[in-house]
Amino acid sequence: MLWLKIDKSLKVTLTKQLFEQLRDKILGNVLKSGERLPSTRNLSKELAISRNIIVEVYNQLVAEGYLESREGSGTYVIQNIHLADYKIRAGSSNKYISDEKTNKEIIDFNSGIPDLEKFPRSMWFKFLRNSFLDMPEYQLDYGKPQGLFDLRLTLSGFLLKTKGIKCHPDQIIILSGSSEGFLLIGKLLKRDYTGVIIEDPIYNGIQKIFNILDIKLYPVPVDGKGIKTDLFPENIKDHFIAITPSHQFPTGSVLPVQRRIKLIELAKNMNNCIIENDYDSEFRYTGPQISSLHLLDPGIVIHIGTFSETLYPSLRLGYMVIPESLVRTCCEIKESYGSFTPSICQIALSNFIKEGFFERHINKMKRLYKGKRKILIERLNYEFGSPVKISGGSTGLYIVAEFKNVIFTDRIMNELLNNKVRVYRVEDHSIIKGKYKNKIILGYGNLKNREIEEGIKRIKESLKEYL
Fold first, then answer.
1. Whole-prediction pTM value?
2. Cα 175–346–155 angle (5° rounding)?
3. What pLDDT score was predicted for residue 92?
């Protein structure tokens, strides 16, 4: 017996499951050199799968040199192909398969995922299909690193209408997600600056990008009104600035105009530029949408936006509005990485916006998320009452919950996960540790109403001894 496990409920093909398990057993020395494998007919009966699958897997293992077929004798493991310490790695694929099923049981309060079920797939598919059929042959090539002019032209009009950003299409660079924007701009600005003045806390993915680029972080605290401009350093002229003014992550605060003006003045005095990260300001639930910082001084503000939360994350589309003087160099850096955004998605998105479907989708989702936000806040207040303080809920797809008597240690986080609920610590995004130990981020975008209610119950059950 080979102790092979075939699970027909998985999306992974039976051929792939069998191939990987036999390969892992050979490399891990479970199947020894020279050992004879069962006949395809016998293994087919044992596993209750088609003999053709067994034949295909055996042939592939022979082709890759794991097995040899001896005429009239059978199929054997090749000599001397055991790989030391392979046991550790061999379990990874099986773990991934089991996690795929287990994770569906976990209520995940991820803050960065929109409602994937409500995305208009059929409509989007029509745009993709028509775009592919109608696009000229030259657009099947790699394209230009700056992105297609048609999408950049569409975005220039849309950004003026929705965010007050006045820009020419030639100032826009299409990105494969906003992270690429930070990587490109960090690489470009590193030529003139050694460090970055950055909010604390701030999304740890941005921190990692700057750390990879060896750009020194100069953290400035935030409060209920965003980054504290009065705490800016006075004489650091070799630092640029990175902020999220419309919806600070993770605290959820909005930078008021007084601080925005102060920020622009400080940047000018230090001969600096500002990176404005706008990742979800489209979803604002009280009052009009917040205007972009870019409109106060387009000459020094670089605006980065994304469609990951307005549409869906795996689309991998974003954009960047930069001064024209930086466009050529930034595109050269992008091209040097071999980074090109697929043309078909750009054409589809441009048409999706021009024909009004994007704006209608945003308005529909705003109503949906406003309802989810209301349920989340109501359930938190019902289950916890005064020991919990809620903030950051006027924009985006998450709120921040501050618990009076709870410190979210690793132990508590594991207890929550064991209770099949996943939350996220604000502290994990802080640079100077210690200030946010009792705060968690609760995203609701991709959760159903009943999942929100059940998730809060599970959090209450996990924290009851600490309250």
1. 0.80
2. 75
3. 43
